[in-house]
Each structure stands twice: as C-alpha cells, then as structure tokens.
Design brief:
The protein contains two helices and five strands. The protein is an alpha+beta fold and 90 residues long. The chain has a single domain, classed as 2-Layer Sandwich (Conserved Hypothetical Protein Mth637, Chain: A), CATH 3.30.1200.
C-alpha cells in the first residue's frame, strides 16, 4: 500500500478553511475555523485533508506535532505525488 507524509503548517481560528502550497519546499498551509482547544483544530485538519485527498479520515494520522502548529501527517493509500496533485486541485 502506498504511504506518504505531509508537512503541514496549521492555522486555527481562520475566517475560512483552505489548503494551499506556498512553494515547493514550504509546508502545506492548512487553515481551519476550529479553535485549538480539545484537539478540535487537529480533528478538523484531518477531516479537511481527508476530503481533499479523497481518502477516509482513518487513513490519516498526526505522527509529529500534535500540540504544535507545525505537524507531520501520514497518509495511507496515496503517493506523495498524487497527494500533491489532489491538494493543488489539478
């Protein structure tokens, strides 16, 4: 099974939700409306990425940075190139 990791910079309490790449080497910018309380922002981040990637939420997990804005998220079932393509909206 394919697996990739995504470096993510999470912005909680944003006005609107979005997923964007700012440059090739920069982490994925994820903005969520949920507050960073009781894992709500992390849960919404996982849900938003799952929607955009077209995979179940159970295939994504935070492997580093659970209490930080900078996170590393593992995704099963999608290669890194395919994940970037889906998140870029191509």
């Amino acid at each position: 099974m394919q697996r990739c990791t995504l470096s993510v910079r999470l912005k909680p309490r944003a006005k609107r939700e979005s997923v964007a790449f700012t440059s090739v080497d920069a982490p994925l910018q994820v903005a969520v409306t949920a507050p960073p309380v009781e894992n709500r922002a992390n849960d919404r981040c996982i849900a938003l990425l799952a929607e955009r990637l077209g995979v179940p939420k159970s295939r994504l997990c935070i492997i580093r940075g659970g209490h930080s804005r900078d996170k590393v998220i593992a995704c099963e079932g999608v290669s890194e190139n395919e994940a970037r393509r889906r998140l870029a909206g191509v």
